[in-house]
Fold this sequence. Notes:
There is one protein chain. It is built from ten helices and 13 strands. The radius of gyration is 18 Å and the shape is globular. Strand 1, helix 1 and strand 2 (38-42) form a beta-alpha-beta unit. The mean pLDDT is 92. It has helices at 23-34, 52-55, 84-97, 115-128, 138-141, 166-175, 203-214, 231-236, 248-253, 265-272, and strands spanning 5-8, 38-42, 61-64, 69-72, 75-79, 101-105, 108-111, 156-162, 179-184, 193-198, 221-225, 239-242, 256-257. By secondary structure, it is an alpha/beta fold.
Amino acid sequence: MTGKIIFLDVDGTLVNYENQLPSSAVEAVHAAQAKGNLVFTVTGRSKAEMYQEILDIGFDGYIGGNGSYIEAGKQVIKEVTLSEADTRRIVDWLQDRGLEFYLEANSGLYASRNFEERGQGTIQEYSDRKGKGRDTTVRQVFPEMIFDAPLYREDINKISFILDDYQDYLDAQAEFPDYKLGTWGGVGEKALFGDIALGNIDKAVAVDELLTYLEIPVADSYAFGDAKVDIPMLEHCGTGIAMGNGGPEIKETADYITASVDDNGLWQAFKHFDLM
C-alpha cells in the first residue's frame, strides 16, 4: 500500500456533540479515499450507535468500544466482550448502589429499568453544556436504545452509568481494579457518566493491532481526536491532530491543532497534510 491511513474519533471530531455531521467532513473523507488513503473511525460507540448517516459515508473500517472491536472492510479482526459473569457482577453492583446505567453492545444499547426517568436531568445537562439549552430527552440522544431487555448478557463491550456523585466513579475504581474505568460528559469532559470495560481495552492498542494486520507503518498513520481518551491514539500514530474544540490536555500532546468540528476542522487538516 502506498497511501496513508487516517483514524477519526467520532464525537467531537467527525460530528459535533449535537450529532451534526459537517458536509465538509464527508467531502474530506471521500477525497482522501479517492487519493488512495484508508479512513477508519475509532470511537467509544458500539456499532449500535453508528447510525446510518455515519455508515453511509463509507469508511474502510471501524474500531469501536474504545478498542474492543475492530473491523476492516467486512472482516472482523477483533471482538472481545465482558463475560456474562463480568456483566452480572457489574450490573448487580450498580443496582445495589441505585445507579442507573446502560449496556453497550454491537447488537444494541440496553438500558436499566429507570434509566430513562433518572437520565433525563443528566442528559439535559449534557445538552446544556453544549450551549444549546433546548429540551432534550433520553430517547432523542439514544434513538435506538432498548428498554426492558434482560441485562445479564455476554455480548457487552462497555457499560456506562450515571454518576450521582463523582464518588460513585471513585468507588467503582476501587471495586473493579482489574477493569478499565473512565468518565465522560461531552464538551469540557465534566464527569456526568462513568464507564467500565475490560482492562486491556485502549484505542492505541487497537490502532496498533490494525496497523499490524494491514502491514502499514506507524509513520503512515494520522489520528484525529478531541478528548483525553484519544490521547494514547494520537501519541501512538505517526501524526496526531487535535480538534480546535478539544480540551487543553489533548492539544498539548498533539503534533498539530486544526479548527473545530463546526469550522471544518477535518477538511482543513486533510488539506494541510495533503491527504486529499
